[in-house]
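Quick question: what would this complex look like in 3D?
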Amino acid sequence: MTEPISPAPISEDDLAAWVDGRLPPGRRAVVEAYLAAHPDVDSRLARYREQDAALAEALRAKLEEPLPARLRVAPMLERRRGRALAELARAAAVVLLVGVSGAAGWFAHRPALDPLQAAGAIAEAAYVTFTPEVRHPVEVRAEDGAHLVQWLSNRLERKVRPPDIASLGWRLMGGRVLPTAGTPAALLMYDDDRGTRLTVYVQPMTIEGEEFRYRRDGEVRTILWSENHLALAVTGRVSREVLLQAAQRVRAEAERNGS
Amino acid sequence: MRDAAALLEPHIPALRRYAFALTRDHNAADDLVQDTLERALRRWSGRGDTMRPWLFAVLHNLFVDGVRARRRRPLHGSLDEHEAGAAVAPGQDGAMISRDVLAQFGALSDEHQAVLLLVAVEGLSYVDVSTVLGIPVGTVMSRLSRAREAFRRLLDGERVGLRRVK
């Protein structure tokens, strides 16, 4: 006795695909023969089709609802274009500020709109002014440590302790007081074995939140940021990486000292 | 990008329907659709054929990620306002009011709801549904079968209940 080669057994997947009308014709015939022989399954699938239709019908009103204004695509595209333009304008304004305050002397006549940028400009100018000094790079030398701390703290009206970045090869030379539009600022100067000089600028400032900036004027690079009502700037004729290391150490020190 | 509006807008009604069926809240649904469209514009790459499953996938993921907490407002308040005077859906004995259908549907698990909506209401192919839900096609099929059976039981239970009251 030989039996005809029987098709693959009917699976639940076949039945689901039959409900959805997604069976290929050959398979559909097989499934329909099966359903003819199994009325219980046939009626179950009929129920599935009914409930699918009922669900679609229950949601039909939603499909036909007019679209609210906020789901129109064209205004969304307009808003996106507007935002992109505003961002561009902001970026251009920052570039402009850096350019203007980077030109020595300008910031003195024209207070920059952004206090942190203004602090960066003073830090940069102070670096350029005082680091070439051979005889008087600082007002108070590091050897007078206690006096330096006392003096700067009095002038800045808050505790100022020079950050220790000796582990990176930067030795404290000393510091000086600088004029600003408000409370005076402090400039701390460091050097390494090759005589390269680096400054840390500290200015008390009412500034909310934390922000980081990077400025560059020729070979002179500055990283500045605000924290805990201080503007801090690290400036040097060094690579960006070296500067960043120093800035990170200064930041960690400042946090440790709470100043 | 210029034809983004022309390519996206035909899909919006179906996206709203899917979002509404998931959230059963008109405002939350439109929030979802708006987020979906904005994300689509941000990541625009002029996707032709795959646009429809892609949009549903974005919406579905937004729903799963964030909106779950906000969903399931009082069901009947929301539906009564919208479905007032809803037509009687075709049913064996005409007792299947669409509101009851949706109420029973809402008792299904999220996974069962999603697969039923995408297959039975939105008419997506099984492959597209597997894209939207991020599961293999085989899982789509088995989940679909279980969802239909669970839905049937819920609706039958409802009907038995109604008969008893009468």
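Answer marked as accepted. Chain B has two domains: 1-71, 86-166.
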